[in-house]
Amino acid sequence: MLPGGTTIHVDNALYSEKSRRNFLSFKDIRQNGYHIETVNENNREFLYVTLVSNGKKEVLEKFSALSSGLYFTHIRHVETNVVLNKKINDPKTFILWHDLAWSSRIINDAKNN
Question: What's the superkingdom here (predicted)?
């Protein structure tokens, strides 16, 4: 659940409650029926999550922009269900996405903001 009360359902996501950063894609937001737009307020960029109903647009969420190009918000509650169809005996077999080099660069850039 996002700060404004918006609930987003994400299938096939990798989430770690101990991680300081988890990513939510535009695709996930759009698949939940919401729209996205960037807005400049007093020379600060924000990402709006909106819902259009009966021809009226309502701003549900407002995310702040970081200089890295990412937007940030807080997630209040995450319901998780885990399904693995493979028994993993070797922990090296299962590599988390945030261990990959490209995401480490994004996270390091975000820390500098």
Answer: Eukaryota
